[in-house]
Amino acid sequence: MRNLLPIAFLLIFSFCQQKVTPPKPVYPIPHERQIVWQEMGYYGFIHFNMNTFSDREWGFGDESPEQFNPTDLDARQWARIAKKAGMKGLIITAKHHDGFCLWPSAYTEHSVKNSPWREGKGDLIQEFVDACREYGLEVGIYYSPWDRNHPDYGKPEYITYMRNQLTELLSNYGDIFEVWFDGANGGDGWYGGANETRKVDKLTYYDWDNTHELVRKLQPNAVLFSDAGPDIRWVGNEHGFAYETTWSNLYRDSVYAGMPEYSEKWAAGQENGTHWVPAESDVSIRPGWYYHAYEDHKVKTLPELMEIYYKSIGRNSSLLINFPVDRRGLIHENDEEAILRFAEKIREDFKRNLALGASVTGSAERGDGFEASLAADGDYSTYWTVPDGQIQATLELEFSDATTFNRLLIQEFTPLGQRVKSFVLEKEVNGVWEIIADGTTVGYKRILRFEDQTAEKIRVRFTDGKDIPVISEVKIYHAPKLLEAPKIQREKSGMVTLISPDQGLEILYSVDGSEPNTIYNQPFLVENASTLKVRSYDPATEESSEVLTENLGPSKALWQAEQLEGIDENASTFVTLDQNVFSVDLGEVKAIKGFSYLPMQARYPSGHITNFSFSISADGKNWKEVSSGEFSNVVNSPVEQLKRFNPVNARYIQLKALKTADGKTATLAELGILTR
Ligand code: FUL
């Protein structure tokens, strides 16, 4: 049982023990359970369920429990890796959109009890919980309200089913730290054989108030996640990025899970939001949430993961990184390697807080118990603050020697509310203050990155806020430089350019899947589908970056289409499909085994294709469909979609959008073919 008492004591203590009056809270302020949660910071997601075996992102609901059959499932391996990676907890997909349950629920036959796994006697939630407890990790449950399997979905009876299941999950497995409600709802599904589209009113159908009350009753310490909270909100994208300005405050009564325009209008929080509903950034370590063997080489690189860290944890959000557990029932070796390298790099970046040795002064002192040194004592529960009314306040740090650094970390004491609206970091050069970096909101944690700076004296100037700053910590670090892999650029002609991330580096590559050891001097032509591997090498330190692998398709030099942006190998351009159809003349007959569709990559895209038909032709007039189906989850996660089919020969290809997510004319960033 996690104990909230220490936090309550801490608050009472800080109010009673001070000789000087503490500042008044700026509302809204966090609930105790949210304070416990915010300190967890970084935890993991396990996407493992029927989709792992059907090779899908969103199952339709017509899958058979027979398909669920991991060969070597070991939840202890997940927990061991998560623990080693510094995560504080794990959240598992107990039931995803396809309705299959990882525990032997008494309310459905669509569960592990009818699968071959452990001869139908297994309970994966129990194994997961046992493993987490053994490794000292908190346990979280993901539960999809949308259920494409259940015959009653869309009717009031389904809400009873959902609550019965939540009662099982939240009563039988001990303490749960987070209950994760997904806002996704695509409409169509199997629904017990009805095979139809069922739209629900997302605001009213789930009767959230009563569902939340049930969760509160069963797990009073758990935080509830959804687009709209009530405790933790979705960050509005699946890249793992919070915003430059991220408020923990939210106009909670104006939002609901799965609502349109949530990302654009609400996800960043609002300065005067009425409730404390901080952001959680969720992202998968691979493009997909579920395991697909074809993504084995697409595990996020170290620079990509670090970018996520700084844009989530470093922007007043928690970070939830997903492992798509594979068909064995294990976290894949590549994912394990990536997360451990990431954990190591975080440890290196934040190894030594240089502010700890500095002498600290504040522009004004409120008095005993709030002195400036408390902002640099490494203790979150103590804080520095200034007399009422002095919103613009400065904290100065003087090091004993000239000190080199490139990171600033600031934390507000959130039990008194989120206040800071803007701040700058400055260093003193020959008696003159120079700005190094600036930021807007702080919240629980804000981290700024900048080029190496050397100074004896620095200061953080809080330039605007909702009230006086109340600062728990200001930390300074010198993070070692990360050697990045080169960037890969391809042109329609098939030419490949490799771009060095920095000066003075060598670039090495290979195009046959072997170790990248050929020195790159100039752009080269890749005509056929190939496996390109690249790395950077620093002759001065003899260090290498990690190896980047990219599967290149055949060159598009001969390809013709009415709008070339869809075949220009440039992800940032896109086409709007005339009549929702995009046709390409490949210029020659090709043996094709599938195709790839990259959705439009703009910040606020439109026309993402959710249902497609793909056809081929010998003359560009008579078409034959070779594949049709769904692109799942393209709105929240617009990653490249690969569809395979039996090999065919074709000169012309055509992608037809049968349906788009927003009902607008279809768009696409890039169309490709698979020949391997
Ligand atoms: C989304 C779902 O549709 C994805 O499949 C995944 O579970 C992700 C975490 O949330 O909304």
Automatic annotation (TrEMBL):
<dbReference type="InterPro" id="IPR008979">
    <property type="entry name" value="Galactose-bd-like_sf"/>
</dbReference>
<dbReference type="InterPro" id="IPR000421">
    <property type="entry name" value="FA58C"/>
</dbReference>
<feature type="domain" description="F5/8 type C">
    <location>
        <begin position="513"/>
        <end position="676"/>
    </location>
</feature>
<dbReference type="InterPro" id="IPR059177">
    <property type="entry name" value="GH29D-like_dom"/>
</dbReference>
<keyword id="KW-0378">Hydrolase</keyword>
<dbReference type="InterPro" id="IPR017853">
    <property type="entry name" value="GH"/>
</dbReference>
<dbReference type="Pfam" id="PF00754">
    <property type="entry name" value="F5_F8_type_C"/>
</dbReference>
<dbReference type="Pfam" id="PF13290">
    <property type="entry name" value="CHB_HEX_C_1"/>
</dbReference>
<keyword id="KW-0732">Signal</keyword>
<protein>
    <recommendedName>
        <fullName>alpha-L-fucosidase</fullName>
        <ecNumber>3.2.1.51</ecNumber>
    </recommendedName>
</protein>
<dbReference type="GO" id="GO:0006004">
    <property type="term" value="P:fucose metabolic process"/>
</dbReference>
<dbReference type="GO" id="GO:0004560">
    <property type="term" value="F:alpha-L-fucosidase activity"/>
</dbReference>
<keyword id="KW-0326">Glycosidase</keyword>
<dbReference type="GO" id="GO:0005764">
    <property type="term" value="C:lysosome"/>
</dbReference>
<dbReference type="InterPro" id="IPR000933">
    <property type="entry name" value="Glyco_hydro_29"/>
</dbReference>
<dbReference type="Pfam" id="PF01120">
    <property type="entry name" value="Alpha_L_fucos"/>
</dbReference>
<comment type="similarity">
    <text>Belongs to the glycosyl hydrolase 29 family.</text>
</comment>
<dbReference type="GO" id="GO:0016139">
    <property type="term" value="P:glycoside catabolic process"/>
</dbReference>
<dbReference type="InterPro" id="IPR057739">
    <property type="entry name" value="Glyco_hydro_29_N"/>
</dbReference>
